[in-house]
Amino acid sequence: xxxxxxxxxxxxxxxxxxxxxxxxxxxxxxxxxxxxxxxxxxxxxxxxxxxxxxxxxxxxxxxxxxxxxxxxxxxxxxxxxxxxxxxxxxxxxxxxxxxxxxxxxxxxxxxxxxxxxxxxxxxxxxxxxxxxxxxxxxxxxxxxxxxxxxxxxxxxxxxxxxxxxxxxxxxxxxxxxxx
Length: 179
Hints:
The chain has about 180 residues and is an all-alpha fold.
């Protein structure tokens, strides 16, 4: 029972981190803002098992879908999910699952970085495809709007999340067994 409670508490804490970091955003003149959501998802993938990472991020989407103002700039509801950036939101649970699975098998720095690059590529890919569909945009226009402005920031978020994760993993792995 103690393990279930500690897992639930850890999942809830990481959900809280995701909600809080989602509010830190910089508006761009495009439909896609710069947020710290992906930083939170990187951390979730590092600190939770694949199933826990997936369901924690899925819970975030469900809570936002039913109206809790937790997406960037306190947005919520189905409008946020079906709007131009909805594909990015829908990609987050998949991103968390894939990254956590890779990290579970390779806890090295290279493993973390590789997982985060793959996770970011998943988000760029799914989010961009959805953006192209909803906005009737060309591939070039979509890349200029949804990918290029974010590459440097995402590289920085990957570096920061690796530093934070390695510090926290030592504590988390000492205290509990990631099951």
